[in-house]
């Protein structure tokens, strides 16, 4: 019999909730921090623990049939996958923020300005849609300290409580996208009976939480 593979985040903000969701679906597996793959003992499924950034491509390429990852990561990697179910956790928004002592008040003022981000693809599309031409500076982390260091005029980063922006003297300026964790599948995986069975279990767990 065929065994499905689902990729979830190995450690980080989505790990715990992803594991909890699968356990609540009645799936029995060991959550070893050290292993990359964990077999499920009571369903033909293996769990792959990965960096979240790698999940969309693994699913697109069919190495994993399914994945749990933030919509932000899917949009940024521009993969072709099927969106199967929103999962209601990992909620955040991708926002442009500016220093709180600045004079930028309308989007047009971002023309010619430098914006630091780890989301150049999503930001680039957003600015293009708005007809704004900014200098997108792609950095790999600690985006919020970049204006203070004189490396950029604004940032574009994920925000949940807003605490990080505030403590770095930044104020949110524009909403680029909102995101939450979603279940994705390889194209066509939605036609698979086992995938359908899993989606139904997930939906009943989500309904029970409402
Ligand atoms: O190691 P790996 O590559 O797997 O993990 P990661 O470090 O890339 O990602 P991780 O674990 O930080 O986040 C995983 C996913 O959680 C993201 O892709 C989002 O979909 C979602 N998520 C939800 C968030 C946040 N909320 C969030 N607040 N991801 C990041 N943040 C960061 C944000 O970048 C900023 O630095 O938290 C800070 C802001 O938080 P507040 O509460 O101060 O606003
Ligand atoms: Zn990551």
UniProtKB/TrEMBL annotation:
<keyword id="KW-0963">Cytoplasm</keyword>
<keyword id="KW-0547">Nucleotide-binding</keyword>
<dbReference type="GO" id="GO:0005737">
    <property type="term" value="C:cytoplasm"/>
</dbReference>
<dbReference type="GO" id="GO:0005524">
    <property type="term" value="F:ATP binding"/>
</dbReference>
<dbReference type="GO" id="GO:0000105">
    <property type="term" value="P:L-histidine biosynthetic process"/>
</dbReference>
<keyword id="KW-0479">Metal-binding</keyword>
<protein>
    <recommendedName>
        <fullName>ATP phosphoribosyltransferase</fullName>
        <ecNumber>2.4.2.17</ecNumber>
    </recommendedName>
</protein>
<comment type="pathway">
    <text>Amino-acid biosynthesis; L-histidine biosynthesis; L-histidine from 5-phospho-alpha-D-ribose 1-diphosphate: step 1/9.</text>
</comment>
<keyword id="KW-0368">Histidine biosynthesis</keyword>
<comment type="similarity">
    <text>Belongs to the ATP phosphoribosyltransferase family. Long subfamily.</text>
</comment>
<keyword id="KW-0067">ATP-binding</keyword>
<keyword id="KW-0808">Transferase</keyword>
<comment type="function">
    <text>Catalyzes the condensation of ATP and 5-phosphoribose 1-diphosphate to form N'-(5'-phosphoribosyl)-ATP (PR-ATP). Has a crucial role in the pathway because the rate of histidine biosynthesis seems to be controlled primarily by regulation of HisG enzymatic activity.</text>
</comment>
<dbReference type="GO" id="GO:0003879">
    <property type="term" value="F:ATP phosphoribosyltransferase activity"/>
</dbReference>
<keyword id="KW-0328">Glycosyltransferase</keyword>
<feature type="domain" description="ATP phosphoribosyltransferase catalytic">
    <location>
        <begin position="51"/>
        <end position="203"/>
    </location>
</feature>
<keyword id="KW-0460">Magnesium</keyword>
<keyword id="KW-0028">Amino-acid biosynthesis</keyword>
<dbReference type="GO" id="GO:0000287">
    <property type="term" value="F:magnesium ion binding"/>
</dbReference>
